[in-house]
Design goal:
Radius of gyration of chain B: 31 Å
Helix content of chain A: 10-25%
Largest sheet of chain B: 9 strands, mixed
Structural class of chain B: alpha+beta
Order of helices and strands of chain A: HEEEEEEEEEEEEEEEEEEEEEEHHH
CATH class of the largest domain in chain B: Mainly Beta
Number of helices of chain A: 4
Keywords (chain B): Membrane, Signal, Transmembrane, Transmembrane helix
Oligomer: heterodimer
CATH architecture of the largest domain in chain A: Sandwich
Distance between the termini of chain A: 73 Å
Number of domains of chain A: 4
CATH architecture of the largest domain in chain B: Sandwich
GO molecular function (chain A): hydrolase activity, hydrolyzing O-glycosyl compounds
Strand content of chain A: 25-35%
Organism (chain A): Candidatus Magasanikbacteria bacterium RIFOXYD2_FULL_41_14
Largest sheet of chain A: 7 strands, mixed
Number of strands of chain A: 22
Number of domains of chain B: 2
InterPro entries (chain B): CBM2/CBM3_carb-bd_dom_sf
Protein name (chain A): Dockerin domain-containing protein
């Protein structure tokens, strides 16, 4: 019995140590997060909800503890907050007279002018230098803008109703490749400006070959934020990560030595990091390691999802597919997964490639 | 013999521990999407009406296509209204409709929905008879936003109800209808045709949202507003010469309608162009002047 116990302890103890170690190294299972972790987040703030957020000077009656006397030249009066969540000093006074002054009585400020209340949303983020950024509201193009040379962009969408929206943003790089869309739900508050900041669009990604001879180099490239660090994730039997640096135009290139990869199918995707902020992942590109090299093939699924071949995947394509939904003998060109019918899977593929 | 037994036990224990550890180390936690109801309570009285909202949680993975059915006893529960306003679904393939104790639905979210408490739709039920009741999910499918339409692992929580008789001398609580005074959102119908679709005929596509009660129906009128029909997108135009205006109206569940007028590329019919009236007037004036001039010469 003693021998059994000794054997049991000797055998189980190391396993327990390994188990506990594994448990605490599993990111899904632990609540503590390393301080060095970078996370892809967007920030949603509401101007008009009466609570001052980071990007606001004030919000409604929340003046962040400020009064008129905190502003130079004013000794009294009433500080207020504009509809844009900026301080309004129109009712502040200096030396007992209103700033607009002039003669005659009144003094002591007055009622600040009422600004029209609008329900709107502002989107602030980063794409690529000079890239065209598209914002979809509930799946339809709402607004487009061009990012600045520093890749920053800002868009305002006014005239919204209060309620839940699904917003999507994507951009196109210097040679017209489309980034993966960043999609998120937002509740828009009535009579307030909802500010969505911290948007960091994913890099584009492409490879120079669809099949590469084992041992040859596969070039993986795309565009992102200038000078950002690009992490290329290669999905093979053994997944690995490689680093590259985007140049001043945001263009990056990583030459993958395929000598270490097994013969077969692989895929890669990339993300971008700058100053502890991280983008979403790009789309995946698939490639094969084999015995010959084949130049990059065009993604035919994307083209196929564009049912009417107008260069966009949008409501028109959806409507055409909806017409054939569950009908007998649909045209083969509308059957995106080639299973002989138009069903939910075809719509899911279309929704993935959606451009609005 | 005793030693053999101990050895056997040790080996068995070793195997069990090994299986446990391997399972613990190498089986990654599986996240699932969930479909469930949000209903104010589960105990109702006959004659009472209640709203059950269908919600989705998918925190780890984006879902871009949904389909399924709600199944219930239509002797026990009667659907009074269905609301799709504020839904995370942007485009409905099957707008939720009731029939034979079922509400069938399907739709997509371009780019996918990732988050919790995403509203699909709400249904208002009237309770007709006592007993235990259920509203169950059936034939449901949630697909990942991965470009391949991979089915997401989905768990559902059905709604269990306990329906009680109305106590003598009391009445069931009154249902307060959902108010909505706002119009559907602005939209731009697209007039298009392509050699590959509908025999190259002109067709209209349209869709909008209503953040209140939700879109009830669309109406298309060709030529004038007396010639309308309720329809869905796509709508193949009857007048393929595109003569006359096209009116597209989106109406929500509370009757608030937004109308969009399209000036067709084929031009308006002659009586819709004000220029024609001006020309007619000028011709008339010129004719009268000529007649007067001739008459004056004779005199």
């Amino acid at each position: 019995m003693k021998r059994f116990l000794v054997q049991f302890i000797l055998f189980v103890s190391p396993l327990l140590v390994i188990s506990l170690g594994a448990f605490f190294s599993y990111p899904h299972l632990v609540s503590a997060v390393s301080t060095a972790t970078v996370v892809a987040t967007i920030k949603i703030e509401v101007c008009g909800d009466g609570v001052k957020d980071d990007s606001e000077e004030c919000d409604g009656s929340d003046l962040n503890g400020q009064t008129c006397t905190n502003f130079s030249g004013f000794t009294g009066g009433t500080l207020s907050c504009s509809a844009g969540c900026l301080f309004a000093i129109t009712a502040c006074t200096s030396g007992g007279t209103s700033p607009g002054g002039g003669g005659g009585g009144g003094g002591g400020g007055g009622i600040p002018p009422t600004e029209p209340v609008i329900t709107s949303a502002v989107f602030v983020g980063r794409a690529y230098p000079g890239s065209l950024v598209t914002l979809l509201k509930d799946g339809q193009i709402a607004i487009r803008t061009v990012a600045g040379p520093d890749a920053n962009f800002q868009m305002t969408l006014a005239g919204l109703s209060a309620g839940n929206y699904i917003f999507s943003l994507y951009t196109t790089d210097n040679i017209g490749r489309q980034s993966s869309a960043l999609t998120f739900p937002v509740f828009v508050t009535s009579g307030a400006t909802t500010r969505v900041s911290g948007i960091f669009l994913a890099p584009t990604i492409a490879a120079d070959k669809s099949e590469v001879k084992r041992g040859d180099t596969l070039s993986i490239f795309g565009q992102s934020l200038p000078q950002s660090e690009i992490t290329v994730q290669v999905n093979s039997t053994q997944e690995f990560f490689a680093k590259a640096r985007a140049d001043k135009d945001g263009v990056y290139l990583y030459n993958l030595d395929t000598a270490f990869l097994e013969i077969g199918d692989h895929s890669a995707r990339s993300k971008s990091t700058v100053a502890n902020e991280i983008s979403a992942y790009s789309d995946r590109i698939a490639f094969k390691v084999g015995t010959k090299s084949v130049n990059e093939a065009v993604d035919t699924t994307y083209k196929k999802a564009d049912l009417n071949r107008d260069g966009s995947i949008n409501l028109v394509d959806f409507s055409v597919a909806a017409y054939w939904y569950k009908r007998k003998s649909p045209p083969a060109k509308y059957d995106l997964n080639n299973d002989g019918k138009i069903d939910l899977v075809d719509f899911s593929i279309m929704a993935y490639y959606w451009t609005g | 013999m005793k030693n053999d037994n101990v050895k056997f036990k040790i080996n068995k224990l070793r195997s069990a521990v090994l299986v446990f550890v391997v399972a613990f180390l190498f089986v990654a936690p599986v996240s699932a999407a969930s479909l469930y109801f949000n209903s104010p309570k589960t105990d109702y009285k006959v004659g009472e009406q209640f709203t059950a909202s269908v919600l989705v949680d998918s925190v780890d993975e984006a879902i871009n296509a949904f389909e399924g059915k709600l199944v219930f006893s239509d002797d026990q529960l009667e659907v009074k209204e269905i609301f799709i306003g504020n839904s995370v679904i942007n485009f409905w393939i099957d707008t939720p409709k009731v029939g034979n104790g079922e509400i069938q639905f399907s739709g997509i979210v371009p780019g996918g929905f990732q988050g919790d408490k995403g509203l699909l739709f709400s249904a208002v039920f009237l309770v007709n008879s006592i007993g235990t009741g259920e509203i169950n999910f059936s034939d449901y499918k949630l697909l990942l936003n991965d470009g391949r339409g991979t089915a997401a692992l989905t768990v559902v929580a059905n709604l269990k109800l306990n329906i009680l008789p109305v106590a003598p001398g009391t009445v069931a609580p009154e249902y307060m209808p959902f108010p909505d005074g706002t119009l559907p959102e602005e939209f731009t119908p697209e007039l298009t045709r392509s050699s590959g679709e509908f025999n190259n005929q002109w067709f209209l596509v349209f869709a909008t949202q209503d953040k209140g009660s939700g879109i009830d129906y669309y109406e298309v009128c060709e030529g004038n507003q007396d010639n309308c029909e309720k329809t869905d997108s796509p709508y193949i135009l009857k007048d393929q010469n595109l003569v006359g205006k096209i009116f597209v109206k989106a109406v929500d569940k509370r009757g608030n309608g937004r109308m969009v007028v399209l000036e067709p590329p084929g031009g308006l019919v002659w009586y819709e162009k004000y220029q024609n009236y001006v020309i007619l007037f000028l011709v008339l004036v010129a004719s009268v002047l000529l007649v007067l001039k001739k008459y004056a010469r004779r005199v």
